[in-house]
UniProtKB/TrEMBL annotation:
GO cellular component annotations of the record: membrane
One Pfam family recorded for the sequence: Usp
Residue spans crossing the bilayer: 12-35, 47-67, 74-92, 104-123, 135-155, 161-181, 208-226, 238-257, 269-288, 300-321, 333-354, 360-378
Topology in the lipid bilayer: Multi-pass membrane protein
Protein name: MFS transporter
Annotated PANTHER family: MULTIDRUG EFFLUX PROTEIN YFMO (PTHR43683)
PROSITE patterns xrefs: MFS (PS50850)
Top-rank taxon: Bacteria
Chain ranges of the Major facilitator superfamily (MFS) profile domain: 9-385
Species of origin: Vibrio coralliilyticus
GO MF annotation: an example: transmembrane transporter activity
Keywords: Membrane, Transmembrane, Transmembrane helix
Length: 544
């Protein structure tokens, strides 16, 4: 596929993904208007979320099965068409029951669409690098941010207009995908049973993470589904508040979270964010009560919660996928099924309690659920790095000091640069060498590391032989089961354990400006935090 055709296909999927994610927050500004227009109670209107996410949860179990049977393109087109069809039906509803039913169909289409979008973007870009993930996250962030704004602007005329507008935009996305995206093959060899996600939940780490996300969703939907009824604002004002909420969520999920991950354990970050959410829920409960009602702290709390949701959502998803030892798609299906079950129960429960007992009770209950989520996630023990020696050491006759020089290998041709440096500038009588490979658990590639165990044993043997002939005392070492966000810390800790006198790694110059600005580079983090000297060899722009 030509570069321009590939870019057009990716842009078509990204545009449609943005529209798909708009549907999450689209209805927030018009919830009160829907209740007034259809003579419905807040609890009845909250069923818009319950029906949507209940179907989404169930569909998460079979979306991967559908994709392997009819292909990625056909699956995402089917999802886009279903979203457009049921969004149109939502706008034509005359009763709250009809609207809830159409939102169920919308959830079905959205599950087919969203679950397939990232895989299709990766396939079209012909790589598994961070660029594909960033495009998907950008679509997610923009969609969540502008959904409430679109709902508010169109909803000023009628609550029906946002639904019709979404149907039109998704229809445009459907046509774009049909025209620009090439056919994708059916992947028959990857089929698995409907029971696979339930079997995956027997894995303790995945089960704990999924359950924690289940209870966390009660906080998420206390904001998303219930708080618009508490604010006592107009359509445009609610849209502005939730635009700020979505913008904060988008910024932290795509820009801030990677930076935090390089410094703190993901479980530690989630727990800290959950504690802040507990405080926010209690603050909202206090100021939502009639005796202390004040809109300003409620608005501030909603926007701040968006920033926290961006961090927690991202980390929960990454942990769920990365801690499961088998298929990423199965782990994702299992996690999303449990997670969105919480999304189906939370809106009706929180809204019902607020409607009958008062807002303070709703937000206080959300705080309790946040504490339960904290207690569960704190029990999740992540895999510990395992050290092995894939090849026997080649020892020189010259006695060498005990402190080694660690040379980080990534299995690519750029390894030659590091080996050549050692060959030319290090001295056998002064330097003992250790060639180290970091094998990452099913994650996004990082600089200087590989996603999968090194297969090029022949090349590694060549490097060992070359350095041994030069007179070096040289060994190789593989560190396995490392989470992507823990790569740099694993390298630093291993260097400290070995009392390394020097660490050598190759700097890949194709890291994006955003990556460099946010210290997302493994190379930069190791350079800044390692106790021993770090030598970074520029790779330049040559292809690898």
């Amino acid at each position: 596929m030509a570069m321009t055709q590939s870019r057009a296909a990716i842009n078509a999927v990204v545009f449609a993904s943005t529209v798909g994610f708009m549907g999450i927050g689209l209805v927030d500004p018009i919830l009160v208007a829907i209740a007034d227009g259809l003579n419905a109670t807040p609890s009845e209107v909250s069923l818009l979320f319950t029906s949507y996410f209940l179907i989404t949860a169930v569909m998460m179990l079979i979306t991967d099965i559908a994709a392997t049977r009819i292909g990625l393109k056909n699956t995402i087109m089917l999802g886009a068409f279903v979203v457009a069809l049921f969004a149109l039906g939502s706008g034509n509803s005359n009763t709250v029951g009809q609207l809830v039913g159409y939102r169920s169909g919308w959830g079905l289409g959205n599950a087919l669409f969203v679950a397939t979008a990232l895989t299709l973007i990766v396939t079209l870009s012909q790589k598994k690098g961070k660029e594909s993930v960033r495009l998907y996250e950008a679509a997610l962030g923009v969609g969540i941010a502008i959904g409430p704004l679109v709902g508010a602007l169109l909803g000023q005329g009628s609550w029906r207009y946002p639904f019709w507008g979404t149907a039109l935009l998704m229809l445009i996305g459907f046509v774009s995908i049909a025209y620009f995206v090439p056919a994708t093959p059916v992947q028959r060899q990857q089929r698995h049973s409907l029971a696979a996600p339930f079997q995956a939940l027997k894995q303790p780490k995945l089960r704990l993470i999924s359950l924690s996300a289940f209870f966390y969703n009660f906080v998420f939907f206390a904001i998303l589904a219930y708080s618009p009824f508490v604010l006592q604002l107009g359509v445009l004002e609610i849209g502005a508040v939730f635009f700020g909420w979505g913008l904060a969520l988008a910024i932290t999920s795509t820009l801030i979270t990677p930076r935090w991950q390089s410094r703190l354990h993901p479980v530690s970050i989630i727990i800290r964010c959950q504690w802040v959410l507990v405080v926010l829920m209690l603050i909202m409960g206090y100021f939502a009560a009639p005796a202390h009602f004040d809109k300003t702290p409620l608005v501030i709390a909603i926007i701040v919660s968006g920033a926290l949701f961006g961090v927690v959502n991202t980390l929960f998803t990454e942990l769920a996928i990365e801690t499961h030892p088998t298929s990423t798609s199965i782990a994702s299906a299992a996690y999303n099924f449990v997670r969105w079950l919480g999304g189906a129960i939370a809106p009706i429960l929180i809204t019902h309690i607020g409607e009958h007992y008062g807002s303070a009770y709703s937000f206080s209950l959300a705080a309790v659920f946040a504490l339960i989520a904290c207690a569960i996630i704190s029990r999740a023990k992540l895999p510990k790095p395992q050290i092995s020696h894939p090849l026997p050491p080649l020892r020189a006759t010259v006695a060498a000091p005990r402190r080694p020089v660690m040379i980080l290998m990534d299995g690519s041709p750029s390894d030659t640069l590091a080996v050549d440096y050692a060959h030319q500038f290090l001295q056998p009588q002064n330097h003992r060498l250790l060639l180290v490979t970091v094998n990452v658990v099913e994650g996004v590639e990082g600089e200087g590391v590989r996603e999968t165990p090194v297969q090029e044993m022949g090349q590694l043997k060549h490097y060992l032989q070359k350095l041994s002939e030069r007179g070096f005392d040289v060994m190789s070492e593989a560190i396995s089961d490392v989470l992507p966000m823990q790569v740099a810390k694993t390298i630093i800790r291993r260097g400290e354990a070995l009392d390394a006198q020097l660490l050598v790694m190759v700097k890949h110059s194709h890291a994006s400006f955003i990556q460099r600005a946010l210290s997302f580079s493994v190379t930069q983090e190791v350079t800044e935090q390692a106790r021993c000297p770090v030598l970074v060899i520029p790779k330049g722009d040559q292809s690898s």
